[in-house]
Design a protein that fits this description.
By secondary structure, the protein is mostly helical. It has two domains: about 240 residues, no CATH class; about 220 residues, no CATH class. Helices cover about 70% and strands about 0% of the residues. It contains 21 helices and no strands. The radius of gyration is 23 Å and the shape is globular. The two termini are about 25 Å apart.
Length: about 475
């Protein structure tokens, strides 16, 4: 089993190349690199309006966020992963027949996923910037140093959230205690140190003033977080038996006004009983939003506070739209083939569950408006949030149907998705910055959103549903 890691890499390649075709999957990182290459030519314009220190801060914050969004390995249960890939028997879940320990297999699985994220998202962006640096007058040493520090930022976020997710698996209450202590330490640093708190982030310090000692300490910190996370892994955690009272009948009556309430309630019960609803809310939504607001608040000297709130509401809408994947990751259309229902029925039932889950980001926006003394702008922010969130999920339904977590890696789907989201968010940001009342124009997005949902349902009704 010394080659287990390479077998897992080959397995991952075969899964995605079977779904998309080898060429389409291979073009995905090429597309990311091309976007970075073309975006690099806007750097002179960006640097004229934004100080270079803030630009590097935003870049490292983005990679930290990418790691945070990718690193919650601890909440991906065996059952959900097996359902996601249908009848595929993954090496990661064959510990009972392989002569190696559960911990070793899980370690190789995490390393494999980390390498894939780096190869698909991190290196292509850096390669695109490196190729463009000669055309925009940037010394080649800068992209080389960025290749190091941005990778460390990604790994730092990934290992940190990996540790949090494993603590959550062991004891959810302990995680809240850890987060409370860290929040208190952050507030103390914020008030006691006059410098920008974001400048204390180790990879950013390394980019500002490179030293071998700081590089060594940063790597040691990342490795320490990763090893502690692996030590907290307990393969027996999923074997506990639990008993639940009948919630289906009660919830079905309570949510009778939703279309297809029985299917919607089934999805919500699946999400709750798997233990993922709290974990997903913490690691895929709340923690990323807190980090985003922290780094946005550091630019308050250049943007009015209400504009930052509007920008945060738009970003929250984009991130909240991924809650649709929470509901689609537990089953595929193949689970419904024996039942007298259409693809439209399943999609609309999951969309109903998505609408109910929007309560979580709405609470986040409400609390932030109170803490930041921006309650008077809350109505405008809610319009921006809901319009962007529903347009994003409608576009996701049109492009990916019931498999957003799989088909998003198709290069054509990714181009169309990010192009649509980018155009909409850019226009809404411009209008909201000009006048808060202009943000109400976001309500017009519900018209194309409904059109995308309707055409998406008809499209996937007419196509053979793949079982991944």
């Amino acid at each position: 089993m010394n080659n287990l890691f390479f077998y897992m890499l080959k397995e991952e390649w075969r899964i995605h190349s079977t779904i998309f075709g080898s060429l389409s999957f291979l073009l995905f990182p090429v597309m990311i690199g091309a976007i970075a290459f073309m975006g690099s030519f806007m750097l002179p314009l960006i640097r004229s309006s934004l100080p270079s220190g803030n630009l590097s801060l935003i870049m490292h914050a983005n990679y930290l966020m990418l790691g945070i969004m990718a690193g919650a390995f601890g909440i991906a249960g065996n059952e959900a992963m097996n359902r996601r890939f249908g009848q595929a028997s993954l090496l990661a879940y064959a510990s009972r027949i392989l002569p190696v320990s559960d911990r070793y297999i899980f370690s190789m699985f995490v390393l494999k996923d980390t390498v894939y994220y780096v190869m698909l998202w991190v290196f292509p962006l850096i390669a695109g910037f490196f190729l463009a640096s000669g055309f925009v007058g940037i010394p080649l040493t800068v992209p080389l140093l960025l290749a190091l520090t941005l990778t460390l930022s990604f790994l730092f976020g990934l290992c940190l959230i990996f540790l949090f997710s494993m603590i959550y698996n062991k004891n959810p209450g302990l995680l809240f205690i850890v987060l409370f202590i860290l929040a208190g330490g952050g507030v103390f640093i914020l008030f006691m140190i006059p410098a920008n708190p974001g400048s204390l982030f180790p990879p950013l310090l390394l980019f500002s003033a490179f030293s071998w000692e700081l590089l060594f300490l940063t790597c040691v910190c990342i490795v320490f977080l990763f090893l502690i996370s692996l030590l907290l892994f307990t393969p027996e955690s999923g074997k506990r038996s639990r008993k639940y009272s009948d919630a289906f009948s009660v919830l079905r009556k309570r949510f009778f006004f939703f279309p297809y309430p029985a299917l919607m309630v089934k999805d919500l019960i699946d999400l709750y009983r798997s233990g993922r609803v709290i974990g997903q809310a913490i690691f895929s939504l709340i923690i990323p939003l807190v980090v985003i607001w922290f780094f946005l608040s550091l630019t308050s000297r250049y943007l009015p506070k209400e504009n930052l709130f509007f920008l945060f509401a738009i970003v929250t809408g984009v991130i909240a739209s991924t809650m649709y994947t929470w509901l689609t990751s537990f089953d595929t259309m193949g689970s419904y083939f024996c039942l007298p229902m259409s693809v439209r029925t399943v999609i609309l039932s999951k969309l109903s569950g998505f609408v109910l889950l929007q309560i979580i980001p709405l609470i986040v926006l409400f609390l932030l408006s109170i803490l930041s003394d921006l309650v008077s702008y809350l109505g405008f922010a809610l319009v921006l949030f809901t319009s962007v969130s529903f347009f994003s999920v409608a576009l996701s339904i049109r492009l990916t149907g019931l498999s957003p977590d799989v088909l998003i890696y198709h290069f054509r789907v990714m181009i169309l998705y990010f192009s649509g989201i980018g155009i909409v968010t850019s226009v809404l940001s411009f209008l909201a910055f000009r006048d808060p009342w202009f943000s109400l124009s976001g309500l017009l997005l519900f018209i194309p959103a409904w059109f995308l949902i309707d055409t998406g349902c008809r499209r996937w009704e007419g196509e053979e549903q793949q079982v991944y």
